[in-house]
Design brief:
Elements lengths: L4 E12 L2 E13 L15 H8 L7 E6 L2 E2 L5 H11 L12 H13 L7 H16 L1
Antiparallel strand pairs: 1-2, 1-3, 3-4
Length: 136
């Protein structure tokens, strides 16, 4: 069975002062559909960098990356963004876009007033958009 995510010899490096510093080196990984995976390591080990690559937010790496049968390493930025858009959800480490307590209160208020219809995403998205505009 083809893995959902497959990395072959994936590397990410930065150059400074004429030297190459590897953040990730020779990463090989297979993740099957439905499999739960934990990435653990000390601070600075490259966990967030690896997740950014797997999440298709970072395209500056070498090696091979297959998402299903799609060769991500051969896709243009536009193609990679489309693949990301339709297949990957991402919660950032620093997600403080709005005050979570205020949003939860708004969400509960809408529930109490019966304003969440059969399609709650629509109401929540409008509320979130309005809250972000007010906060920013």
């Amino acid at each position: 069975m083809q893995p959902l995510i497959q990395l072959k010899n994936l590397e990410k490096a930065f150059e400074a002062g004429g030297q190459k510093f590897f953040v990730l080196r020779r990463i090989n990984l297979d993740i099957q559909a439905g499999e739960f995976v934990t990435i653990m390591g000390p601070s600075g080990a490259g966990k967030s960098t690896l997740l950014s690559i797997i999440g298709m937010l970072d395209g500056a790496w070498t090696g091979e990356y297959f998402f299903g049968e799609q060769p991500v390493h051969k896709l243009s930025v536009k193609q990679r963004n489309a693949l990301h858009k339709y297949n990957i959800g991402f919660v950032f480490q620093s997600y403080h876009l709005i005050d979570a307590h205020r949003f939860t209160l708004l969400h509960l208020t809408f529930l109490a007033k019966g304003r969440l219809t059969h399609n709650p995403g629509t109401t929540i998205c409008r509320t979130l958009r309005d809250e972000i505009k007010r906060t920013v």
